[in-house]
Write a structure and sequence with these properties.
By secondary structure, the chain is of the alpha+beta class. It contains one helix and five strands; from the N terminus they run H-E-E-E-E-E.
Length: about 100
């Protein structure tokens, strides 16, 4: 699995968390843009997902929420684990909901 797919997984989970937060706030958001314009995502790869691996899991936390024109920007940090070993980390993931 290319590393970019792992980063994409982290961003997708951040998007789900942001949409869930908006729904709980009673706000209908119809558009999600990730990575947010001018975002500065930083990531590190320390391994790869191989065909013989059994389990891939991810962890993402929302680290900041900011109002933007017409919506909100959610920032997050996350990690991807393969068979219990952390192989990717990313910070300053971002999603804009409008």
């Amino acid at each position: 699995q290319p590393g970019s797919l792992g980063i994409h997984m982290l961003v997708e989970l951040l998007t789900v968390l942001a949409l869930d937060a908006a729904k709980r706030d009673g706000v209908a958001r119809t558009r999600a843009e990730s990575i947010a314009p001018n975002g500065n995502t930083v990531w590190r790869y320390r391994g790869q997902v191989l065909p013989e691996n059994k389990l891939v899991s991810i962890l993402v936390e929302v680290t900041e929420v900011n109002d933007i024109p017409g919506g909100r920007r959610y920032l997050g940090a996350g990690s991807l684990f393969v068979d219990g070993l952390k192989i990717y980390t990313a910070k300053d993931l971002s999603v804009d909901l409008t």
